[in-house]
Design a protein that fits this description.
2 copies of one chain form a homodimer. By secondary structure, chain A is an alpha+beta fold. Helices cover 35% and strands 40% of the residues of chain A. Chain A contains 2 helices and 3 strands. The first copy, chain A, has helices at 18-29, 53-68; strands at 2-11, 35-49, 74-80.
């Protein structure tokens, strides 16, 4: 069975996010003063062939650790649809 | 009140996603043959000051249209926590 797995990779909360800061500056220049913080990460959708959603999640976790996320700067969250 | 709004920006389904294809190649080289498709987009977290979650969602939608997403190549989904 094929599962659609979402992996959200975000910069660690303790770290600055220069891309997010730049986008926040852009929004404020556009007059959107009600946005007080912006953080930008990646959203990765994997199509995983597996016997159960648990196994699909394990495969996505392995992929995240090996390739998708850099643990020095990022954390990841996985959800299976 | 401050709402945390998630904006998911993904490449349109009709378009190729070269970054995703490259990552899929990488995963297959690592021996993870059960992953059959990868698409990569952005995940943006906004802290929005608004009176209700409906208004926060509207502000995030305006920000997405004006700056965060390029409608020629991307679509976006908004969820408010």
């Amino acid at each position: 069975m094929i599962f659609s797995v979402q992996v959200k990779v975000m910069p660690l909360r303790e770290l600055l996010d220069p891309q997010g800061k730049a986008v926040m500056g852009g929004l404020q220049n556009l007059g959107m003063k009600s946005v007080s913080d912006v953080r930008i990460g990646k959203n990765i959708t994997l199509q995983v062939e597996a016997e159960s959603s648990e196994l699909a999640k394990q495969i996505a976790e392995e992929a995240s650790k090996k390739l998708l996320a850099n643990p020095v700067m990022e954390y990841f969250e996985i959800s299976v649809n």
